[in-house]
């Protein structure tokens, strides 16, 4: 017993990393930094739609269903149940909201979507928790059954309409702050550095804001509070980390797993309600468009945390929003390249103290970034810009390899060093792509959520931590 206690104390004492807390000041500084970055990008590229109120409003609208689906996945996976079936639950919510809204009004439609999502969640919960079906198999089955069931129900509910669709649905109320909205739009039109960008952001938040968006923001905050600040959330998360240990402490593991999956289904159904009642004002076949899968990508991108998940959903929604606004998406390539190099440089500088040799590749990454900015100049021929950009990338990689092989103190670098280096190099390549092109293929824009998730998995996988027992089949009493 004493040996076990000593071992546990040793493990806790040697934990190298502490989780950083997002204080209000840190959040404010992060938002301000993002706005400054958008302002610089807008001025550098000349694309005013990058930070316009229309782009902000569209990004929020497109992010809500993704964020709600990801939030549903968060509740399920924190309870230890992988929910691949979010897409199927969302389409059930789409039909439920349309059917209820036509009969009893838009608010009833919102409830109807949640109830149909609950039905999908109940099916998944019974299959995985009670019968012990593989979680992925059950989720895939839901994704196959959900669209078919919704199509059948729609054909039976509205047989008079051609195709699988519903009549126009009543709208939910929207919020616009009179006076403030017009004033902010006027200030946005001045195109002043940072000032107009802040005005555009605020104008997008106070103009035609759906009530479901307000509810979604509240649900993100409520999910964080319930899961991390209440006994209920602690017990639910313990079922996702170590259900056997939770059971020995008297936690009803089955009940909390059921609760997590049912809440997951309800949130996915609410996401479907948003698509039907807010985004389109009607139901139609294939309405979800893969947003359930993008919600899962946002969940992984956000490291199974509500705030980071919401940030990922906003980023994915922003990509979708600006691809419809001229050539603004092309300017985002430059932002992506700069961000990747900056993150890689920061990761290189954030290594252990005393390893000053790592400053060398960090400085080279910064120098290469400057070369990338020069390569973006329209005054230079394309061949010259490409040569300068790729020379910067080669200089970064070559000098870092030399430093790695010649400096003794760099022979024991932590696992994050290769990822940080690869991130910086990839950012340089993206910057060169921006310099040598004038547009971005629409297919790539649609795949942006998956590309971003793959980059996170490839370059920052050591920082990701899913619940330890996520996806494992648990049988009651198996520890006895």
Automatic annotation (TrEMBL):
The keyword Nucleus does not apply. The chain crosses the membrane at residues 25-44, 50-72, 84-104, 110-133, 201-227, 258-280, 292-316, 328-347, 359-376, 382-405, 417-436, 442-460. It comes from the Bacteria. It is a multi-pass membrane protein. The keyword Protein biosynthesis does not apply. GO terms for molecular function: transmembrane transporter activity. It is found in: Cell membrane. Keywords: Cell membrane, Membrane, Transmembrane, Transmembrane helix. It comes from Austwickia chelonae NBRC 105200. GO terms for cellular component: plasma membrane. This is Putative ABC transporter permease protein.
